[in-house]
Queue: 2 jobs
Job 1
Amino acid sequence: MNRKTILLTLTCLMITSTIFAQMKPFRFGLKVAPNVGWLSPDSDDYESDGSVAGFSWGFISDFTITENYFVGTGFNISYLNGKLKYPSEMFLDDDTIPTPGTLKRKYNFRYIDVPLTLKMKTNQFNSLQFYGQIGFSLGFNIKTKASDVFTYKIEDEMGDEYTSISDESSITDETTFLHGSLVLGGGLEYYIDNSTSIIVGLTYYNGLSNVLKGENKAFDPPIDQKAIPHFIELTLGVIF
């Protein structure tokens, strides 16, 4: 190996060492994130009944791989919601036979979410840096509540009419403990100083697993309840 090769190698190593010395091995921060969620049913005669606003907050962190590539993770408390409409039945008063009808149920899920993503960033332009990320998130169910409106048809002397009953209840035991999502997102960082930046991003969580348990006995034979959650969140945060 000649002197020029040795000198070039040492120069490259010095430059690389200088770059990595200027980079922080990890950064931590906080975020809040309003979201909009919905449920995609996978059971016959089940329908999505629209999207519902939710919210999440938590901690974010970036672990450096190279100058523009990072592992993004964190710890979030997520309030995710969705609505379904499907055939059901209910015992009314002292009836011994259930009355058939339609149930509109709003689900209020509360999860601890742990995302793990590959985050890619552009070079910094003045005080701005753009990023994209892809990965997975695993959610642990803390609590699930339901707000129900059961509508059924009755017959009286004035003719047929529809009436409804409203109820709220805890249905944690009717939902799964774990759920997984594919995470896709992007946004920007605005640097206040050399290490502190404000984050604004948009992230889509595409559900991969069913979150409902149990059977719907209004069907003969009963059918398994299945639905997959999805949501989009607007991330607002600060990282140090």
Job 2
Amino acid sequence: MLEFRYDTQLLIEGENLDEDAINDYFKNNFKGDCLLAVGGEELIKIHFHTNEPWKVLEYCSTLGEIYDIVIEDMDRQARGLKG
């Protein structure tokens, strides 16, 4: 059994995005691992394993437009099922 079930990935398009501030917010407010928040002031890519992907989507949507959203169930994948 995985500690964090959902592989959550998305892009944030906005203005004056700050990848350091986004990283800090994730670390201080969400439970999860494998955080990747990289990019520039107008586009950030997020990759994060969590049990509450809806919280990630909610936060990211406050920063700008979110798209290319992928949420995969890694527990299902580990059992050989479509995630």
